[in-house]
């Protein structure tokens, strides 16, 4: 199946394609290894979290990885962290939600596809009403991928935090709806919160440079094995746990 053009008017064809799309895992492993060497993130864990994360990965249980969002460098530093953590063994089996504009230029799209990207048409870019149907389909696709045994990485704030890098911004209900829909399909995804800090920022609106993004601090919280039953409660739980992860990343910077 030929990759469809990623535009809102073509959303049905886009999500039909990304329901089944698989990247080349060997290319993904090579790319993540390169990013691991380039960015050299510092990875730390809450008490017992590393052992729990290893056990979770070995179990094969579908998992949602939730990360706070600070800059356009985040996908690269997160990929580097995956290489330098117990997540290395699931590289190539993780779907990553990415804004639709990253799929426009052909070369960039190949890279995003190689990293397991699934396009997101955001309300802030196209209007809330215009993206409603596409958003519903995107959440269904994510739930189906989880039900098939894939994992999902998401920046639940939805956009870069240019307000206060020490505080997780509002988390939309999307992460809750994805987990809820996966549960309706018969799977019970775990949730792992990963905090990210590039250190103190004089002006949060100015993103870190590529050099400043090196040696970022990442902090893993223990997996949440049992999520609440309602989407809104899941989202609130995800936000609280992500703030704890961010606090850890800042403390260990």
From TrEMBL:
<feature type="domain" description="Phospholipid/glycerol acyltransferase">
    <location>
        <begin position="63"/>
        <end position="199"/>
    </location>
</feature>
<dbReference type="Pfam" id="PF01553">
    <property type="entry name" value="Acyltransferase"/>
</dbReference>
<dbReference type="GO" id="GO:0016746">
    <property type="term" value="F:acyltransferase activity"/>
</dbReference>
<dbReference type="InterPro" id="IPR002123">
    <property type="entry name" value="Plipid/glycerol_acylTrfase"/>
</dbReference>
<keyword id="KW-0808">Transferase</keyword>
<protein>
    <submittedName>
        <fullName>1-acyl-sn-glycerol-3-phosphate acyltransferase</fullName>
    </submittedName>
</protein>
<keyword id="KW-0012">Acyltransferase</keyword>
């Amino acid at each position: 199946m030929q990759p469809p053009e990623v535009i809102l008017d073509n959303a049905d064809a886009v999500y039909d394609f990304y329901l089944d799309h698989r990247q080349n895992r060997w290319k993904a492993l090579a790319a993540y290894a390169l990013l691991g060497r380039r960015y050299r993130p510092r990875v730390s864990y809450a008490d017992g979290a590393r052992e729990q994360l290893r056990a979770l990965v070995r179990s094969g249980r579908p998992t949602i990885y939730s990360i706070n969002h600070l800059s356009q460098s985040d996908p690269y530093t997160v990929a580097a962290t995956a290489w330098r953590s117990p997540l290395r063994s699931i590289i190539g089996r993780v779907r990553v939600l990415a804004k639709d504009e990253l799929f426009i230029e052909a070369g960039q799209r190949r890279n995003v596809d190689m990293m397991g990207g699934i396009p997101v048409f955001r309300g802030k870019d196209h209007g809330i009403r215009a993206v409603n149907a596409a958003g519903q389909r995107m959440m269904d696709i994510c739930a189906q991928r989880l039900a098939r045994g894939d994992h999902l990485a998401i920046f639940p704030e939805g956009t870069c935090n240019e307000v206060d890098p020490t505080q997780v911004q509002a988390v939309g209900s999307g992460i809750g709806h994805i987990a809820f829909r996966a549960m309706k399909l018969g799977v019970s995804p775990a949730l792992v919160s990963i905090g990210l800090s590039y250190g103190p920022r004089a002006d949060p609106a100015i993103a870190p440079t590529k050099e400043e993004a090196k040696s970022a601090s990442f902090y893993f919280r223990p997996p949440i094995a049992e999520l609440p039953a309602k989407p809104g409660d899941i989202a609130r739980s995800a936000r609280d746990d992500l703030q704890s992860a961010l606090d850890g990343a800042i403390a260990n910077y």
